[in-house]
Amino acid sequence: MLQKKHVNEQVPAVCSVDDKIPKAISQCIQKATRKDAKLRYRSCQAMKKDLLRAKKEPNADFVHVKQERIASQDENLLIKHVKIAKRRIYLIASVVLLVIVAVFMLSILKQGDEISKHEGKSIPSLVGLSQEEAIKKIEELGMVEEVIVDADSPREDGIVFKQMPAAGETLVEGGEVEIYVGVAETESTTPDVLYLELSKAQDIIRSNNLMVGDVLQEQSDEPSGYVIRQEPSPGEDIAVGEQVNLWVSGGMAESTSSSSDAVEVEQ
Prior knowledge:
single chain
């Protein structure tokens, strides 16, 4: 009961209990026992100073004792509920913040996966496959093949014995994959690809164990995209794996510029 009374009520002035206690001493004690720490003495030195003065001037009124307001039981209960509510709000806010951070991190990880997928695809092993099978796998990945024929390879005719990039490495979509294929014969004849569409001409050249060399664009009367010139010429003897350079039509010239001006075409 006394403890509860001490919490809810101010400590009475000791001079009101015993009138023999000097007024100044009573005020020092009253100031030192304020509920609010801000109303008490700020230091032992300050209290000592007032006590020494009270000893000399026991009935002087020099100690400044500020009155404090003691909250009622209902107010204390309200304060308690407010504190509980604040703790709950902080807890909920912390949980929400953690959820937001978790979602944000998952989003970053997902974006990282998407970026990784966009940056490159894993190249499968092509060694041991036929040239046609390897080309099919490369095209299914959305990439471009470059066939390099090697008459000195240890593999039989038309079988891939080497690839670049190697199996397991990544390459962006549209990138070039080099496949090295063996061939039994060392000599070939340049096929006739004149006046064929570029893509068909390239397929024919590769099927003859030759490589497509430079592809240049030139103005002509022929339809755009069709081969108008090749080097070596059709029927010439050529070593297996050598290049055949092509010139394709860029359509009718719109000016008086020379038709011999050629522009390299991206393959």
